[in-house]
Amino acid sequence: MNYQAKITDKLMKKCNPSILRVIDESENHRGHNGFIEGQQTHFQIQIKSTAFDKMSRLGREREIHRMLGDKIIKSIHAISIKFL
After folding, report:
1. Domain 3-83 adopts which CATH fold?
2. Nearest in space to 23 (alpha carbons), one of 9, 39, 38, 7
């Protein structure tokens, strides 16, 4: 399953970011907990959107999780989010 494309698609549609990078960092975690050979398990999201302007850091992270939905969140091991 291409989670990188799914994450990108959902965030583009739901918060219209001016900057969005979804980076698959799975290979960097080889040998660590949560790494599964041949699967996308670890991501870094770099995002800038006016949708987050008035939210706290915790509120922004919760909103990203809500936008992605339980199915995606529960299917990958880790997401790192950087708000630009």
Report:
1. GMP Synthetase; Chain A, domain 3 (3.30.300)
2. 7
